[in-house]
Every structure is written in C-alpha cells, then in structure tokens.
Amino acid sequence: MRFVVLLAGVTLAAQQKPVDFQREIRPILSDACYQCHGPDKGSRMANLRLDVLGPAIVPGKPEESKLWRRVNHANAAMRMPPPQAHKDLTDGQKESLRKWIEQGATYKEHWSFSAPMRPAAPVVKNLNWARNPIDRFLLARMEAEGLTPAPEADRRTLARRVSLDLTGLPPSPAEVEAFVKDSAADAYERLVDQFMAKPQYGEHRGRFWLDAARYADTHGLHVDNYREMWPYRDWVIGAFNKNMPFDQFTLEQLAGDLLPNPTMEQRIATGFHRCNITTNEGGSIEDEVAAIYAKDRVDTTGAVWMGLTVGCATCHDHKFDPITQREFYQMAAFFRNTTQKPLDGNIHDTPPVITVPAENERARWHALLIEEKARRERREAHRRAARGGFEKWVAAGRYKGLKTPFRDGLRMPGGAAPVDGAVKGTQAVSFGAKKTLELPGVKADLDSRKPFTVAAWVFLPKDEASFAVASKLEWIDKKEGIARGWLLDFEGRRPRFQMMGGKEDDLLLIRAGQAGRLKASTWHHIAVTFDGTRDYKGLSIFIDGKVVVTETNPNAGGGTVDGSTLTKAPLTLGSDGNKRFFDGGAVQEIQILDRALRDDEAEILAGWLALRQEIASGARPVEPALELIYLNREDRVWQKLTGQWVQSVAEQRAMTRRAPVTHVMNEVREKDPEAFILFRGMYDQPRDKVHPEVPAVAGALGTAYPRNRLGLAQWLMAPSNPLTARVTVNRMWQEVFGNGIVRTAEDFGAQGTPPTHPELLDWLAVEFRESGWDMKRMVRTLVTSSAYRQGAVATEGQRKKDPENLLLSRGPRFRMDGEMVRDYALAASGLMTTAIGGPSVHPYQPDGIWETVAMKGSNTRSYKQDHGEKLYRRSMYTFWKRSAPPASMEIFNAPTRENCTVRRERTNTPLQALITMNDVQFVEAARYLAERTMKNVKSGFDGRLDYLSGHALARPLEAPERAVVQRSFKSYLSHYDARPEEAKKLLATGESAHDLKLSAQELAAWTMVASQILNLDEALNK
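Above: the chain's sequence. Below: its structure in token form.
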C-alpha cells in the first residue's frame, strides 16, 4: 500500500504545471529581494545573493532552503523581506516560490540577455484565422487561456484605424468609400500601402522618435533660450519616409560624423545626442555639467537601443541588473570626446553646428566650401611667399609715414580728463560718476541698410553693472526702452551692440557669448562689424582682433530691424542717454568706418595703437599687424587673392543668412575617448580612468569595432546583440497596439515586466533583423495581421480574463496622444496645413504660460502667436519650450522632452475635456467643419449629418444616434435664434474667417453639433 501511495505522489508531481522562472519567480525576487541580495555588492546584506543560485536555496527541498524558511518565519523581525522594505509577499507569491524550489529551483539567465532565436510558429486549432505568424503566436496563448479572437472590424473602422496608425490622421471620406467598395482580395493590403506611401507616414513615425530623442526648440535649463534644431526633426521625418534601414538609422544618429566622408545629412543625423538639455547658468561648474551631459547620453542610449536603466549604475553597481558602475563610465567614455563645450552660451547655435542650406542651394554650398578653402589657402601661401618683400619694405623704413591703417577715425576732443591709455605713452578719456561726453559735431549715424565698423579701446571698471560705452540714441519711451539709433554697451562684462528702429521689438542685438566675458580693470579692443543686411547674422564682434562667438534674441526682438536707425541725437560717450553710464571706465581711439572690416583688418585695427607707438619711438616695429598693413597696401597679388576670397566668404554669408543651422556631434580626433569613474556619481571625485566598453552581460565590444561612437553603434546593431532588435520591435508593437509585448518599454531588465508573448517577441526581433532592419516591412506585418484587424468590442468573458487586452483577443482601442487629438480635429475640419518640415510654429496658446516660468533675460519669455497657415500646422511642428511644453499636449500626457521618453503615460482627466470642448483651436475646427458641411450640402439635415460624420468619424451615424444629434441641433438652433449675439461670438472664435453669407444662427448650431461629435470617445480614441 505504501508503494502505491509513493507512485501516486510521483504522478501528481509530474502532472504539476512547471513554474516559469522568468515570468513568475524572477519578478518576485527582483522586486522583494535584489535590493539587498542582488548584483550590487555595495548594498548586499550577509554576503547573500539571490540573483544567482546560492546556499540560500536547496533545489527540490523547500523546507531546507533558507529562502523559504525566512519568507515564512513566524517572528516578524526575522521574516523576509524585512518590515522596513514594505515588500510583503502574498500567499500566492510564497506558494510560487515553494513550487519552484520543489521543482528544482532552476535559474535561467534573464531572458533579455540571451540572443533571440527564431522560434517555430506554434500549432493552433483555428489555423484559418492566422494570416501571418504573429497571429499563430497570439492565438496559441488565447486558446490556452480559453479565449477566442473577436470578429474582424468593419471596413470603415479598419480604414480609420489603419490611417491613424500609419499617418496619424483620419482618412478622407473618399478613401473610406473607395475601400468599402473595393471587392478585391488584396484591397486592405493596397490600402495599407497607400497610407504608408504618404509623406505623413514619416511625420507620424517621427513623432514617436522625437520623444525618445528628447527633441525640443529650447535648451531646457536656466533661461531656456531658443535652440535652432529643427533640421534634425526634418531629417527624422525624411528617414522614415525613405524607409532607411534601422541599422543605418542608428549608425547615422550615433556616429554620422565618424562615417567615411560624411554627408551633410549624416552630420544632421548626429543631432540625436545634441537634443539633450543644456545650460549657461552663471554658477555652473563646467566639469559637473559635462558629467551630466555624458550621463544623459548614456541613459538615452541605454533606454532607446538596449531597453535598460543603465543610469542606475551612476553611483554604484546596478541593484537589479548585472551592470557595474565601471561599465556605466566605460559607456560614458564614448560621449566624453566631442568638441562641444559644457556651457551653451544661451545662444541658438552652440557649437558644433552646421549650416543647412535649402535643397536647391546645397550643390552650390558644397562647391563654395571647397572654393573658399582653396582661395584661403592660396592667400595664406602667398603671405608666406611675400615675407621677403615685407622684410625689404621694413628695412627701407617705408612704414614710418603711416598715419592710420585705413583712414582717420573719430578724434577725441580736448577738455576731457585724460588717463593712461591701453598702450604705454597714450592717453584715454575716463568717466567719473554719471559723467558723459557729448560730441554733437561728429557724424556717427549708422544706417541698418549699409555696412559699417565701430571700434574702440575700452577699460572695464570693477563693478558688475551694465555699462554704456557709446551711443547715438533718440529716446521715444525711456520707461519701455524704445529708442532710435545705436548703442555699444557691456552686460555682465560682455560687449553688446544694439540698433533700434524706434518701435517695440524693432531691434537688432548681438552680444559676446560667455567666452567673451572680460576681466575687470583691463583694457580690450572691441570692434563691431555689420554688413548692412538689417539682420543679426550680419553682425560680428571682435575682442582684441579675434572674432568671438555671439548670441542674440531673434525670437523676442533682436533678430532684425525694420525702422530707420538714423537720428539727430549727438554721439555720446559714457552714457546711453537714459539711466546707464560708464562710471570708472575709459575709452580710447573710438573709430567708425563706412565698411565692415575683414577678420584680418580687425586684427590690424586692434594692433594699430601699439604699432603707432612703436613707429613714433623710432624702434624697429615688431607688431604683427604691420605685415598685414604691408600686404593690404603694397602687395597687388595679395589684394587680388583677398578679393577672390572675400567674394567666396560674402556668398557663403549670404547663403548662411537664408539658411538654418543645426546642432551636431563632432569627435575630437587627436585623442582617444576616456572617462573617470566618479565616486558616488560626484563630478569632483574622479577615481579610475576607463576607456570605452559596453556592458559585458550584452556581449563585449572586443576587437571587431573601433572604440568610439561608431563602434558603439555597430555593436548595438550586431546580430549577437540580444537587446536592440527586441527593444525596437517592442516599441513598434506599442505604437500600434497600445502596450508593448514588454509593457515597460524602457526597462527590459529585472525590474521590468516580463513579455506577455516571449516567443512572439523573439520571432519579431529575428524577422526584423533578417529583413535588413526594414522598418516599413515590420510595421506592415503588424497592421496586416488578423490580430490587428479584429473588432475592438469586448465580450464579458474577454473583459474578465483580459481586462487590459494584453492577450489581444480583440482589436486595439485607446485614447490618442495629444498631438493626434489636435491633428485629428484640424484634419477632419479641413483646416490643417499639410506642408512638411520647416521652422517650428506658435499656434494658439493660453496667455501667460511662458511668462509664468521664464526668466527675464530669456528670449522665450514671451509667447508670440503666429498667424495664417502657421496656426494650422501639424502638432509635431509646434514650438517646444521645455520649461513650458505646449499646454494642450501636456494635458494629454506629452512629456517635457527634458529626458528620453520611450513610453508615454496615458491618463484621462476632466482637463482634457476642457481642451477639446473649449480651446480656441478645437472650437475653430468645429466651426470650420460646420461651415464646410453647410457649403457642400446645401440643405437637408440627414445629408449634412452624413457629410459631417463622414469627416469626423469615417462613418454615417445610425438611426438612434441621428435622433440624439437631431434633438441637439434643434436645441442649439433654438438657443442661437433667441440669442444671435452669442452666435456671432461663437463664430468669431479663431482667426480663420467664416462665410458671412451663411445664417449665423444655423452655422453656430452646426458648430456645436460638430464639437459634440468631435468630442465623442469614438473620435478621441483609436
């Protein structure tokens, strides 16, 4: 009898369902145990590990296993996890641990660290349902869970769904009707191809990528100034539309500058890692800022391509995943070898940047780069060859008669208090408290339509105040700071130059960047040149003969000047004529020339004062400026070569004024990348030096790849890499189905959720890689599956067994992102402007949002709404200020783009309804759709309703729905008939004009109907 019982026990154990370590056990251990008993040796307690098999577990014997005894200990003080961890295990979790130990306590490497292998599609009962392998993997799980697929959605629903997923926009009624009437077997596949061929496909796919790239139009920190970056955004759109293979897409963004002979497009692509937030705050420490930038780039690369939270190893070894702190800083070394400076200068074009001419000018631009370089080199070669002629000229003493390098500038009048000048033996004019010097007889008008140069030697006082050096201003409103004329001043010990046109924001302004901040109590030569184009790009500042990086406020006044800058006010030294002076400062040798000096001429002018003293002393001059004077005065060949070079430079500058710039990566070629392990992540406590390497758990870099960003990109795309393909197809799945197969798209590590369909994820990853990383093919595979085509209506059984539709027993249905909600309304109404690419725009926005958060000196402090077609651009072109993202999108869970985001949250709040029902953009869209309805269907309620719902919902309404809408329409019409002024007020919403020939009351009623329909869940959900 005992023998029989034993056999029964063995039979029961054999029949017991195996515990899935990856799906059931690892999540328990990771959540409750790894904090103290995981990979991080620094926080490991009792030297006991549970991320690998160790002495705490006796396979097959739960009662002898310390793990089992401690999680069930009767004494709360001895029970694990400890009370302070707040990680109590449920009875079900404990039972899973018991069964796992009983079954042998098999440990497996974390699933995401094993290279994916293509699994065979499983056997299913309902084979006819499956259109491709995706369906068989999903159906096998459904059948195991006792679920059946939902029926296929009707054609109108399918057309709308696939249009939204492939273009981000609703289909036109004509496209829907054509599909409904198409009886061909491949009608749906052809519809998919039609939508994928649209340029809007790249916009929609690109919008998801811009979240990951943390793309925005401002720097993000401190004053959050404008950053010109939009050519990178347009590159992303183009790459998706061209179906660039994902491996090339990766290589160009991570290391386009390191490719052989990189093209302009490949350099633009490197903007991916120039999208990070930057700062220029005065108290910033450059080493600390550089460490922050490197961390951001490691974190972003880890999230986007590896699906790992590598940043958790910044201060110590990762507590949950096998990533050490050393490996984190080895990753950081890839990004610590660029020419980018830590501080952004608060300028829109922080180096390194490249100019991006229009497509039709690029051939000439590239030719000009070659031409300018060749002419410059010929000029410099001649300078070396002419050295002998210069020596003879000096030996003959022909320099002794020089009075000025160009022509006389302004002479300082007598009567001013003289002080020692910038050069020994010279004198300058100093300024006491609120002392000024007016020069009414001097012609010093500067015309914004003509070139000029203003230059002077300036002595800076110790004070940090804002100082006025020289001005010629006619004040119109001193309180508001409105004037006409020009001003040379200092702000924070940085030279600044302004031209004012006599109106608010009619201002041309340029100032030296942070590197141009000068020391107090020192002399410096300041020169400002202008090419007469009325544009800030025509201005340059030279300090001591060298051109410096400058900044301006082109988006908040300071970019162009339209009014006249000519004035009858006298030239004034030491004051702006209002409230600012030059107390304790001094000026010498102020000069105004009627042309813009070249770089070499600015160098001559800066050296002229010392040279003049050398000449006067009778000693042989040693000032380098003398050689340039000789060449410009005496050498005809130099003059000819200079003229040719200047011609090329002038054409370049003209093209630059018309073209945007974009931020790029640029490697330091002279040294190998390196970084230091930072103790506890602190920038000022460097420890061991490390060189580029990747986390060993995902495979070493080895000798196959260079140890730079290019090698990193190649390693990420290698067939042996276990992560990249999985992580990428998971995001594609998430975009289409609402949730990823791994819901935590940003975390494929131990703390992330395990995949709902691990074999399907591996099949997709291998299919994607072996297709040549074909992104369009993968998206097409997803949307042509039977799973995708299911209806979204859930049965009671489906809601109970699969409430979140993770098993895909019905079609995807979820609230659209904020950009899609706005774009849907614009497109359905007919208001949308369909132009692709270009600068970001400023559509409607509630007052005061930017002003509330912005600092006074920010050039994005005040929001200036655009007009005309710019109001109706697609949402991805909306100007993105990181400290105050577009409000109507942020309410719909759009990120700030301060950090990488690969998965948006999705919430539902009353504020969202307030946006779609009351925001001017949505009310105007409803009115415009109503107007189109009335114009295209002259009369008849049913015909007009069909037109409206066809655009808004891609289907006609059913009889019960029509009855509801008709009652609403009659109620609205009665309301506005009795209150015609309210109808006019409603119709005045938005800048687009409405047709005055239409009945205002009827149009208002249809506007409310359109708003009602556009606010249905059906319209706001995909």
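The longest helix spans residues 362-385.
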